[in-house]
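CHAIN AND CONFORMATION:

***
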Amino acid sequence: MSTRVAAFADLTLNQALRVVVDGTPIALVLDAQGEVHAIGDTCTHGDISLAEGFVEGETLECWAHGSAFSLKTGKPLTLPAYEPVPVYAVELRDGDIFIDPTVTKEI
């Protein structure tokens, strides 16, 4: 079941917003193309919040060790991380963002 996690207006272009849904930390990102992404908020290398990192194009980079993750696939694009983070389907309804944290996107 999808849960409202934020209003679209809460997002800032090329910045991540951390939300927690049923105990699952998720980073929401509005990219330069206007697409909203939702990926697991915990870096698989250092247990760091990715929402505190840097958005560049279609990646979210961990501020601590520099691992960059694809916003579309969750796969790490740079070391030291080598395990992907989950990617969640985003539903926009009436200006709000909904996510089901129990269902990850098939990539």
